[in-house]
């Protein structure tokens, strides 16, 4: 019992009697199929004030119950997670909902159509109202209550909620919206402000209540029978709701033209056929690509295996095969030897670097590999007609001689008279030659290796067959020539006027055999010789350029070597003999010797050009008729430890054929000719000077031959000790134009 009291206290149950009366009244207003249930009650003409209050109260309770039922149905039929209904709500026989089926809606539409047909006047009135409305507005009937037409009621289209939103209701069943008086009064107040706002638009409410005459003593009803039209703006594209509700009549589509149909069918068939062909083509391309990928993979695998076999095969061959050793003719040197192990050499890195040098320098079948590499590298470099340039060939800017300087050059004449020398008494006593000069100049560091040819860098190979020739490009400058002239001027100043000093700057083969299209790209050797001559003071310039130029068609220069041939040296020696005033026999008085298969240094400098090896030189040298009367001794670079030998070494071969005269450069040669004229010739030379010596054996009583690159004592003191009367610098023009070699020449003067 207590629970019932609490329940009544919490929920404040309304008066059941009033609720029952309101419910009964609602049932009276509900019809099924447009027919009233039971007999229609007549409307009382007068209602007392108490009855009105009671009815109004029951109406309010009824509305609350209806709202609760609607909220409950919505809560049960919708999920908080989705918009789909969870449970299908039960249909109520008392309330119209949004879930009614479409069949009932069609029935209501048919009945509405009958009513419209039976009431043409009413339809015309509504049509006039629509025409008066704006193009952007549609007048929708809000509600009509108790407007019985032939026993039916007009359907409601739009419902307006308290917050001003509009909702279209389905027209399945007849439903009468009962609006309390207070609710209607709110709309009257809103209408004074041009209507409420519905769906974001302010709408105008038009009151069409019929002015029926009512008894004066009649009370104001709780429900207002009225029709309210709401003007809702719509887009121009949309049709009015009234027209949309009408049943659309199906439009008859025009029959297609048979010709157009055939064309469209043909196009469709063609498109279908092309689609099939494209699909087939794509399928074939995919299959082809797949096969290609398989073949490419197979090739890559095979290629990788072959490459690995080659690499490991070469590696194994290099370890197993016999390695080269000893002297190599083509490069004129000894091959590297395996280093000896020691802790100091190991920690210094000399031992490991020596191993690397040994394995690199002693490759098996070195000569054959060089020939192969030569054929391959012939395809590289610059090729101009029949000329191949090996190295980084460069062009130089031509220099112009100073004619005023040339004009001031004075001619020096050699002294040819008899002089007293100490050469006869001090040929074996060389202790005084080791004295140092008191010059204030200091010795300049120069490279250890000053051999001829390595300075050249760029090698030019021109011609073919027996006329093939290799030569080095000449890049001498006047500046370097002036340096050389100033250096030998110091020699003359140290030796004094008692010694005839000669300078022979020997041109290379490039001066005469350079291809015409490259002559302007290198320095002019004739101009550089003239520039040196212009800088000499008290020195006799032995210019052999023109004399050699007269014999260029003869074999005066080697084709595979950077040296000249002894025949060219003969023509140059003739010029010197004329200046020095010595006897100079004809070439016919000399014995001619030949060494075949001479391949010189240019073969190596040209990256082993195969054409040079295929057509080698002949080294032709000449022995004087007094060769058997010559006494020749060879000293070391400090002029000690003499060894008696000969002037010629006929066993020379290969690249060393040039050493057939005077053997190696690292020795000081002393030649006693037996000529009694008291003249002693000292020659400071590079390797070009060797070929000159045999042609001087009839002109001087003694000849000393020194290579300035390997001279370890003071040269001025040496010349004085040996009784030098004539000093000849027989040096190639390339050495005269190389600063490091000029420094070396000056070093031996002051060391």
Topology:
Layout: H1 2-11, H2 16-29, H3 49-77, H4 102-118, H5 120-132, E1 137-141, E2 158-160, E3 166-168, H6 181-192, E4 197-198, E5 201-202, E6 205-207, E7 228-233, H7 241-245, H8 258-320, E8 327-328, E9 333-334, H9 343-348, H10 350-361, H11 366-377, E10 382-384, E11 387-390, H12 403-407, E12 459-462, E13 469-472, H13 478-495, E14 500-506, H14 510-513, H15 525-534, E15 540-541, H16 545-549, H17 566-580, E16 591-598, H18 602-605, H19 610-614, E17 617-623, E18 631-635, E19 643-645, E20 668-672, E21 680-685, E22 702-707, H20 715-721, E23 726-732, H21 733-736, H22 739-750
Parallel strand pairs: 14-15, 14-23, 21-22, 21-23
Antiparallel strand pairs: 1-7, 2-3, 4-5, 6-7, 8-9, 10-11, 11-12, 12-13, 16-17, 18-19, 18-20, 20-22
């Amino acid at each position: 019992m207590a629970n019932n009291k609490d329940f009544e206290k919490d929920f404040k149950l309304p008066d059941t009697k009033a609720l029952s009366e309101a419910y009964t009244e609602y049932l009276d207003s509900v019809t099924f199929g447009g027919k009233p249930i039971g007999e229609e009650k007549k409307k009382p003409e007068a209602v007392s004030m108490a009855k009105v209050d009671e009815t109004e109260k029951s109406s309010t309770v009824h509305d609350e119950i209806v709202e609760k039922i609607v909220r409950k149905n919505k809560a049960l039929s919708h999920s908080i997670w989705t918009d789909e209904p969870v449970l299908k709500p039960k249909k109520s026989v008392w309330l119209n909902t949004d879930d009614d089926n479409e069949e009932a809606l069609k029935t209501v539409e048919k009945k509405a159509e009958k009513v419209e047909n039976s009431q043409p006047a009413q339809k015309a009135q509504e049509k006039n109202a629509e025409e008066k409305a704006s193009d952007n507005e549609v007048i929708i009937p809000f509600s009509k209550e108790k407007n019985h037409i032939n026993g039916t009621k007009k359907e409601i289209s739009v419902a307006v909620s308290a917050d001003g939103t509009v909702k279209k209701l389905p027209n399945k069943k007849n439903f009468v919206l009962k609006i309390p008086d207070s609710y209607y009064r709110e709309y009257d107040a809103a209408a004074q402000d041009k209507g409420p706002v519905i769906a974001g638009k302010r709408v105008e409410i038009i009151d069409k209540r019929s002015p029926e005459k009512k008894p004066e003593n009649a009370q104001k009803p709780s429900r207002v029978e009225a029709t309210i039209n709401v003007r809702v703006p719509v887009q121009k594209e949309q049709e009015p709701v009234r027209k949309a509700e009408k049943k659309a009549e199906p439009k008859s589509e025009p029959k297609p033209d048979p010709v157009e149909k055939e064309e469209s069918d043909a196009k469709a068939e063609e498109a279908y056929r092309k689609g099939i062909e494209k699909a087939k083509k794509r399928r074939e391309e995919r299959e082809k690509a797949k096969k290609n990928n398989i073949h490419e993979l197979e090739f890559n695998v095979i290629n990788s295996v072959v490459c690995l076999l080659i690499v490991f095969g070469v590696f194994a061959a290099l370890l197993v095969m016999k390695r080269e050793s000893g002297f190599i003719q083509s490069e004129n040197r000894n091959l590297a030897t395996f280093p000896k192990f020691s802790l100091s050499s190991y920690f210094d890195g000399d031992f490991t670097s020596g191993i690397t040098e040994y394995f690199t320098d002693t490759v098996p079948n070195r000569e054959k590999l060089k020939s192969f590499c030569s054929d391959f590298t012939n395809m590289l470099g610059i090729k101009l007609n029949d000329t191949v340039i090996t190295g980084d060939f460069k062009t130089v800017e031509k220099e112009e001689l100073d004619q005023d300087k040339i004009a001031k050059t004075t001619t020096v004449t050699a002294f040819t008279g008899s002089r007293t020398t100490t050469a006869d008494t001090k040929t074996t006593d060389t202790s005084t030659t080791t004295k140092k000069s008191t010059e204030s100049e200091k010795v300049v560091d120069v490279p250890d290796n000053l051999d001829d040819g390595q300075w050249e860098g760029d090698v030019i190979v021109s011609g073919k067959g027996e006329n093939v020739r290799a030569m080095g490009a000449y890049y001498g400058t006047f500046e370097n020539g002036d340096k050389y002239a100033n250096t030998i001027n110091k020699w003359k100043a140290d030796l004094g006027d008692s010694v005839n000093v000669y300078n022979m700057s020997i041109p290379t083969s490039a001066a005469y055999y350079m291809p015409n299209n490259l002559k302007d790209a290198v320095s002019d050797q004739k101009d550089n010789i003239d520039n040196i001559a212009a800088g000499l003071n008290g020195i006799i310039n032995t210019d052999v350029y023109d004399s050699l130029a007269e014999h260029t068609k003869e074999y005066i220069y080697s084709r595979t070597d950077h040296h000249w041939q002894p025949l060219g040296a003969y023509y140059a020696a003739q010029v010197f003999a004329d200046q020095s005033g010595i006897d100079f026999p004809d070439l016919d008085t000399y014995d001619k010797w030949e060494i075949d298969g001479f391949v010189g240094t240019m073969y190596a400098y040209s990256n082993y050009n195969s054409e040079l090896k295929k057509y080698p030189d002949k080294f032709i040298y000449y022995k004087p008729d007094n060769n058997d009367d010559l006494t020749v001794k060879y000293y070391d670079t400090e002029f000690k430890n003499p060894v008696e030998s000969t002037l010629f070494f006929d066993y020379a071969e290969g690249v060393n054929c040039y050493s057939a005269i005077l053997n190696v450069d690292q020795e000081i040669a002393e030649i006693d000719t037996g000529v009694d004229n008291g003249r002693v010739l000292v020659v400071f030379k590079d390797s070009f000077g060797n070929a000159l010596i045999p042609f001087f054996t009839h002109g001087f009583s003694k000849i000393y031959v020194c290579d300035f690159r390997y001279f370890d004592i003071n040269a001025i003191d040496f010349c004085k000790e040996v009784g030098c009367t004539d000093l000849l610098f027989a040096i190639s023009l390339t050495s005269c134009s190389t600063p490091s070699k000029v420094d070396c020449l000056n070093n031996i003067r002051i060391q």
